[in-house]
């Protein structure tokens, strides 16, 4: 509670003592973060190690956790953490560019296929709300690409409003109103939860009820 | 009979849809259509003007926080922004709080500085990855050397010409954050608002609508959104790149989504009234 209140007040007090205190806390946070990272890594390894030894469903995928880890960590040690030198790509740089980038890109790209398939199968305009959602999405999707702008101008050009103007209105009036409401709600919730943690009312994060 | 035939459209093997999408994306990448990008979003224009008005030698801090998953949208805008900063002879500092972005930053600075004859340590500096974003942000408000002592190649940064006169946010002209995460929110809340540092950003198209409140209040000086935003910025600096060429694939991809939604709903309506 003491450190919680002190850190909270330090945010509002621009005094040297408060700045020094924040700097010390920052250094401690970095140290704790390093240990937390190590703990997370150990926990991940143990979890997948047990899956392999107990041969649970899908245990084969767990092997790839270790393969992926080794494919990045071994070159990282070998290259001393550097990705490029005057001579070009190091082993780490090669692993990053040709293994990590390719895998991460593929994982995300696959989503596009599922989104398009789901749009066809599941986007049903069955109510007024769904219709409003569809109209807004339709205009935004259309206006986000030059071809859509050309189509809008040739089909709806007679309205006198360009698709960019309509998008600008949607983004700055209804979208902002909704987002602002959500942000205020989340912020109030975060403040209340933080105060409960600082004053020891909320203890669930420590594993206590 | 017709009803059953129409209903069979919903039972179509989804791999056919995957194939159509693959063709729609692949063809324009191989053979670009080259449709002109007719409009520039006001928010992209504001980012351009923010960089444009900086005097030569001003220090801009780039926070490049994206990994390969959002690379197609964010990498072209980061590249265009760095090019613009170098064109204006600004000093560039790069930080990152996403471990996966270090290689993408290397990619940018492998090529772009050579185009503008810029030197590492003199015109730009790349700080190493830091895991604790809030600690780094608050520390940089008082003394950047309290958290960053060396660059990503283990060279002392305090003695570098690029860091001349730079100790904290007061000595910087602004922060530009390119991210597919909520890190831009952190820059606005913990740096922009508290230390009155101008903050501009670049985000994925899907997260762009969420930044409307910050743009209206001026907490964000400008915002580049998605691949279209990247293409717009490339046209503003008159250096077409991956954003401009990628927009063709996006053109047809977006239209396919609209076409599929419309088709399925029209079929549904017909079935309903048959």
Structural account:
The complex is a heterodimer of chains A (209) and B (274). Chain A has helices spanning 2-12, 16-54, 59-78, 91-122, 128-143, 146-156, 163-172, 174-198; strands spanning 84-85, 88-89. In chain A, 78% of the residues lie in helices and 2% in strands. Chain B folds into 2 domains: 2-31 and 251-273; 42-240, Rossmann fold, CATH 3.40.50. In chain B, strands 3-2-1-4-5-6 form a 6-stranded parallel beta sheet, sandwiched between helices. Chain B starts with a helix and ends with a helix. The mean pLDDT of chain B is 90. Chains A and B meet through helix 2, helix 4, helix 5, helix 6 and helix 7 of A and helix 2, helix 5, helix 6, helix 8 and helix 10 of B.
Q: How much β-strand is present in the residues of chain B?
A: 5-15%
SSE pattern of chain B, N- to C-terminal: HHHEHEHEHEHEHEHH
- Radius of gyration of chain B equals 22 Å
Would you tell me the overall average pLDDT of chain A? Answer: 87
> Briefly, what CATH class of the largest domain in chain B?
Alpha Beta
**Major sheet characteristics of chain A:** 2 strands, antiparallel
What's the topology here?
The complex is a heterodimer of chains A (209) and B (274).
Chain A: H1 2-12, H2 16-54, H3 59-78, E1 84-85, E2 88-89, H4 91-122, H5 128-143, H6 146-156, H7 163-172, H8 174-198
Antiparallel strand pairs in A: 1-2
Helix pairs in contact in A: 1-2, 2-3, 3-4, 5-7, 7-8
Chain B: H1 2-7, H2 14-30, H3 42-52, E1 59-65, H4 71-87, E2 91-95, H5 102-115, E3 124-126, H6 133-142, E4 174-179, H7 183-195, E5 199-203, H8 212-217, E6 223-225, H9 226-236, H10 242-273
Parallel strand pairs in B: 1-2, 1-4, 2-3, 4-5, 5-6
Helix pairs in contact in B: 2-10, 4-5, 4-9, 6-7, 9-10
